[in-house]
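Sequence in, structure out. Go.
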Amino acid sequence: MKLPDSLGFLCSGSERDRRNQLRVALWSLVWAFSFLAITLVIKKNWLPYGVTIVGVFGTSILGIVTILAHRRFLRETDELQRKIEVEALALAFGVGLVGGLTYWLLAVRGGVPAKDFIYVFAAMIITHPIGVLMGRRKYS
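Output:
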């Protein structure tokens, strides 16, 4: 499948890299929408417990598929892109670890509500593409 050149701002590298990046992006979106949908179902109590649990595990499976797509991308890309990705993942992990532990301590102290921990994951998700852009700029 030949990708249009207009996707160059989203995907970089060889045709295979661009295809793999697009695959990761699409699986990530499917996973994110699934996560949002099951979160809404849980909060509104729209479905019976058993159906909700199936939805939770279905969302987890989509997360695993997304991870496997990203792993494939990392295995098949060139060394420079892999280095950029690993540095971006390390940055996102660090933000999540430090931010998560800080948030947990504040929650234990009563400074923030424990139920809003999702913002730590949001920070990780936002940090990764920023790290990729920083890496591309650094190594270009």
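Check: Residues 79-109 form the longest helix (31 residues). Residues 68 and 116 are 28 Å apart (CA to CA).
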